[in-house]
């Protein structure tokens, strides 16, 4: 067996009379320290994630409980195997695993079939740098982005970011998306409408500025472009009344 590698953790072998909890904790902590070491060229996303650190506590308690059921000799054998595997380089680890799989019976293979898939699940959005996570979410449409916000608190914090929705709104202004069916209307410039029927006042409204309009025409309310035609009709009616009076 080769010596400790510079690319993988090398937990020290515990003394023969070491406590079971201390020995298992030493192996787990050595993996976490190695995964967080910035000098390492190979990054283990699983051991560096906060999710794994939370899950490893439950795994640590279960391993400690099961290891305590074994005899003293079996406990030392298991701890030695764990330590040697942690000290091995990547090709050596693969060779050890291949040899173990070759010796496994159906019950052991069935156990691996159940145990491995959950370990391979990694939250790629939480693990990725923020700019990469934003880039991934920027390809989603409005409906998918709303669904992504319901996955977890981390996903919601990223999916609710104004930068994503600002870009989303720019793409949907004055058009309707064929894929998501979502669109935003093009807002027109607002005009002013005054409820005035006196002909003299109507002529005054055509000459005063917007800042003077509230003092001349009361009340004044916003007018959208779609209803501006009614203003022209009222103004024409006012001129007709003026002509009749003359």
From TrEMBL:
Pfam families: F-box-like (PF12937)
Keyword Membrane: no
UniProt-annotated stretches for the region Disordered: 1-21
Compositional bias segments (type: Low complexity): 1-10
Family matches, as PROSITE patterns: FBOX
Domain F-box: 122-168
Cited Gene3D superfamilies: 1.20.1280.50
Protein name: F-box domain-containing protein
